[in-house]
Amino acid sequence: MADQKNARVIRKANAFEILNHWVMAISFFTLSATGFAYLFHIAGVVSFFGGPMGMKTVHNYAGLVFAASLILTIFSYLIEALSFSGDDMKWLMKGGGYLSRNAAVPPQGKLNAGQKLVYLMVLAAGAAIAVSGLYLWLAPEVKSRTLSMHFLHNAAFDVYLMIVPFHIYLASIASPGSLRIMINGTVPLEWARKRHAKWAARMT
Amino acid sequence: MTNHWNDFKNADVILVMGGNPAENHPVAMKWIMRAREKGAKLIVVDPRFTRTASKADIYAPLRSGTDIAFLGGMIRYILDNKLYFRDYVTNYTNATYLVNPDFKGPGELEGLFSGYDDATRKYDKKTWSFQMDEAGLPKKDPKLRDTNSVFQLMKRHYSRYTLERVSSITGTPKEKLEEVYKTFASTGAPGRAGTELYAMGWTQHTVGTQNIRAMSIIQLLLGNMGIAGGGINALRGESNVQGSTDHGLLFHLLPGYLPMPTASVTDLKAYIEKYTPKTKDPKSVNWWGNRGKYITSYMKAIYGDSATKDNDFAYAWLPKPDEGMNASWLMLFDKMSKGGFEGFFAWGQNPACSGANAGKVRKGLSTLRWMVNVNLFDNETGSFWRGPGMNPADVKTEVFMLPAAASVEKEGSITNSARLAQWRYKAAEPVGQARPDSEIMDELHSRVMALYRKDGGKFPAPITKLTWNYRRDDGKPGVDIHKVAKEINGYYLADVFDTKATPPKQLGKKGELCAAFPHLQADGTTSCGNWIYCQSYTQKEGKVINMMARRNAADPTGLGLHSGWAWCWPVNRRILYNRASVDPNGKPWDEKRKVIAWNATKIPPGADKPGAWEGDVPDGPAPPLADEKAGKYPFIMRADGMGAIFGPGLADGPFPEHYEPLESPLAENPMGGRQRMNPAAKMFYKEGGVGTDDIFANADPKFPLVATTYRVSEHWQTGVLTRHLPWQMEMMPQQFIEISRELAREKHIQSGDRVNVYSARGKVWAVAMVTERLKPFNIKGATVHQIGLPWCYGWQSPDDGSGGDSTNLLTPTIGDANTLIPETKAFMANIEKA
Amino acid sequence: MGRKSLLVSPELCIGCRGCQTACKEWNQLPGSKTENRGSFENPPELTATTFNRVRYVEVASSSGDPRWLFVSQRCMHCGDAACMNICPSTGAINRTADGAITVDKTKCIECKLCASACPFGTPKFDAQNKLSKCGMCADRTASGLPPACAKTCPTGALRYGEREELIALAKKAGYAKIYGENDLGGLGTLYAFRDEPKLYGMDEKPAMPESLIFWQNVLKPLSYLGLGGALALSLVHLVAVGPKKDEPKNDEPKKDEEVNKNG
Predict the structure, then answer these.
(1) Which of A87, B502, B665, C166 is most buried, by CB atoms within 10 Å?
(2) Structurally, how many domains does chain A consist of?
């Protein structure tokens, strides 16, 4: 839908999506910081969060926030992320055009194929990390399962640690103009036509 | 014990039979394991495969109550295979003595020795005597061939104990018997040492004394008495039970094993005449010949200045039981059950659980008008009136509880099984109103004295004239226990001289503590509360020394004598009869384990001619036996100085003979003859008696299982001290019963099931412990099952009743023929799944 | 000073359980209500208030006497301790200079991961859910005293001392296999076994769970390697390819050109 006041921009994210994104981002950073402190016994971080039990509380409740936030993203992105087309495949084959400055890529929808994949990975790893985290928190008595849950929690964390930096980089420095989506929700129409041609076409 | 705890490490073979040190004397195992590390063999003979058995090189099971058969077989084995130590036997035992030709043994007299009277169940011991020569000395045959010699009589007596017969009585497989016999008999060789450790598994039988006698014979035959790593060692059941026995706990003894006079012994002269053994043999030390000095010094200790030569040293004030009166445990509670007592002090004991036939004991308590329970905790005795089967409204007994301080809450001495008196210090204040026993007793005394002063009395002197000056000097309340210890040691009441020396040599200064019992006098110039403790708290060059508080751990001989650690009676001698550890020339039989040795050239301090003993404190300073003029026999406490293979002093025979327990699976004695059980044991009731608590059931199909009782490491006696400790209860929470897999199968019982255990007298419940560690016996061709139950539980604590109740509810009222120690280690029972 | 250990010799143990009581006394642990389950063994397992206990193992024999083995059990104080590896809380599980694994309850975060990681099932949790286990009496050993259990043992079945010396001692005494000599980085609780460990109720080859090893060696390093790698790749992209811009602005041509040239 075209922006009423300015015909040259269109809205890519609504207020709810923006808010939810930042909730997720903040909880993620909190969880990562405390998670790293757990893994590598970083005393400074522990005391920053009020000692071992304080940090545990922060980690657990941030985890709850993160999980809730993750569930809410489903309403925003899941359908779009699952709609994979031939263009998406071609986009992926061309590396999303990121491999060279002038590469031409097939037209994309509201989310490009990369974003779709990232989202699905975030969702899957997030589900794993949330479920295993809850299990470790609430029911650590069953020993053999606890160990696999601990394993899963860490494996999923590793996935996050690998994709989140790319996500941030690609959505900020690597793709100027993206960042404002998560600030005011709009993008210039031209910007959108270039990157999300199919969506832009639908919107105008 | 003849030796001491540390000495176990010196043994080559350790026989544990009638005891279970791993569970009841765990620290003893330290020394047993040391011996094993050096290659010693540990033999355990027990109806159950115990925690001690788990460490044994040889384990042999036997049916409860058949120890004499087992040991009789060993005597036969030693004699048949000539494994005895001949020089030792001929020089140091009465094996060479010739016995009255009229003496007959059970092999000839239907299971009885000569002189038995059916009506009184007593022996006339006239024929159990030695033949005497003109000089009044026993006739001997040093070659051991005379048919009337002790040696030949013994051989005849034990020839009946064949392997087959013993195995069919004990249920021990023949090859096990042989293995045990062979291994233990190997210590008969000079240079090898074998020791025996026993406890209540031997004493608590109708033949308890004879169990130990049988072992004494073996140890004398093998030359194991008096040597390091040898001896017969009673592992006492409580840390200070040795001390309490030494100090006159038993009804028939004054402190220091002086006999309690009976009513017919009316004056001191008669006492000394009656109780002082005599010998005409100059080579016999006959230490009890000093009886007069010890009793006189004792009278001076308890009556002080009131005991004078003129009043016969107050001998008349000693209490004197009637002739033939027996005031031992079973008799007291039998009398109590018949209403014979008004009041009762239960001091540091729990008879409602510890007494054999506890149901009878509990009923007996309800006949009392009052009872004083002195203990750390209330127990089944103090609370008997609200116990199972009691209606509190019907019980008229008034019970007073006096809380006592625990051993760590008071200062004093404690004497362990090794006769070692160690001084202990107070570690903590008594809890609440608890007070040390000495203070309770002191206050009791002062109140009784006050009553005498106020009301007078028929015969007050025995009480009012007592020396009783134990209060602290600093004015604070309480007893100065050092004053008691000093009174026990004794004082010189005048300057005392050795009048045999010329000029008379001063032994002690008036007012000082006595140096040692050879200084005690019969003329009232010394006092001594207990002659065997003389030297325990002494004075050297005016300086007072508490010998029991010494803590020098040095061990110059390497034998573990530790002569500078605390003090042991007599005169700090660590191994009794140590003169038997050397040959007649004073040379140790075993050079590796030299307890003492005669040094013919050394001049002892204060003497003018050479010749002195080195090592442990010898049994008297006299030169070795071979010394023509002054040599002495080694067994100085016996009138003839000899180890007694023939023991005419006992009530039930000069040689131990196997008799079945009061209750057994057998209707007849498998040794033959007409005498199934110990003929001299006092019967409290007739067989099959009804309508009383005193019933028993022999060879009765209703009670086919041989039962025994025991303690566990986790609990102390009846558990009064340990059942209040959650740590101990956590480990051993409940009454259990050990049964074999075979019996469990027969009775459809699984491990962990609750079962009811019955005897002719009572019933308890227990948790079944089905185990490999018990196996059915083959007794005379029939399968006989053995069961075992600890006796550490009681209804009163834990107070939810989850512990169970005392297994003494099952045991009978019957005791040893000599000591009346109850037979709780062998009786018949049955079990059913609850 | 080398690593210290406790040498357990079941062949010398008489099952008296003085160690069990001494432990509770020194560590001020309460006794719990138990019941007899047809065995001497109690409590049935280590608990938050039972740091050591004796297992009673009865071995039947078709010929001859049974065997009754007494095996004193407690934390194994592994050289490579799974509990310590997995513990997320800084300073909650520590190793003393002597090699004992100790617990600082104030730092335990009640996550119980140690319990799932321990190959011996040692970690237990108190009423506050804090890890509660044998710490080899570090408060005694620090002052040169042996642990309470070893101090009270009458027969030398529990010996505390220099690890190498204890191993040498046991080997000299003829024990072929010293259980824990090498497993798990060497155990701090060693066993001198006459027979196969299985007979004594022990795992032949105790080991850390494989997933834990994978976690330790792969996942844990991957968390910073992955993060670093992702950041590095982003940086490489930034330098090598550069941001994707629609139309170069006037104030940026030089940079674009530069990027082009470089590209």
Answers:
(1) B665
(2) 1
∠ Cα C84 C87 C92 (to 5°): 80
Chains that touch B (3 or more CB pairs under 8 A): C
Instruction: Please report the pLDDT score of residue B689 as a whole number.
Output: 52
Exposure class string for A61-95: b at 16+ Cβ within 10 A, else e: ebbebbbebbebbeebbeeebeeeeebbeebbebe
Q: Is C64 on the interface with B (CB under 8 A)?
A: no
Mean pLDDT of B775-782: 96
Contact between C58 and B768 using a beta-carbon 8 Å cutoff: no
pLDDT of residue A120: 92
A179, pLDDT greater than 90: no
Q: Which two tokens stand for residue A95?
A: 């590396």
Whole-number pLDDT of residue C262: 33
Low-confidence ranges of chain C (pLDDT < 70): 1, 245-263
For chains B and A, having 3+ Cβ pairs within 8 Å is answered no
CATH no., domain B5-237: 3.40.228.10
Report if residue A43 sits inside a domain. yes
Residues of A numbered 120-179 whose beta carbons fall under 8 angstroms of chain C's beta carbons: which are they? 136, 140-141, 143-144, 146-148, 150-151, 154-155, 157-158, 161-166, 169-170, 173-177
CA pair distance A108, A92, nearest whole angstrom: 11
- Which range of residues forms the domain containing residue C230? 211-262
> What is the ipTM metric for this complex?
0.93
Whether C15 is covered by a domain: the verdict is yes
What local confidence, expressed as pLDDT, does residue A181 receive?
A: 84
* pLDDT value, residue B581: 96
**Min Cα separation C228/chain B (Å):** 55
Is residue C150 domain-shared with residue C74, that is, in the same domain?
Answer: yes
Domain limits for position A128:
9-203
- Model confidence at B230: pLDDT above 70: yes
* Average pLDDT rounded to a whole number, residues B107-132: 96
Same domain, C154 and C246: no
Q: What is the CATH number of the domain that holds A87?
A: 1.20.950.20
CB B699 within 8 A of CB B686: no
- Facing A165 at nearest CB: one of C111, C116, C231: C231
- DSSP symbol at B393: G
CB contact, 8 Å: B732 with chain C?
yes
Fold of B705-833: Barwin-like endoglucanases (2.40.40)
Per-residue pLDDT, averaged over B562-566, amounts to 96
Question: Quick check: C133 and C103 in contact, CB under 8 A?
Answer: yes
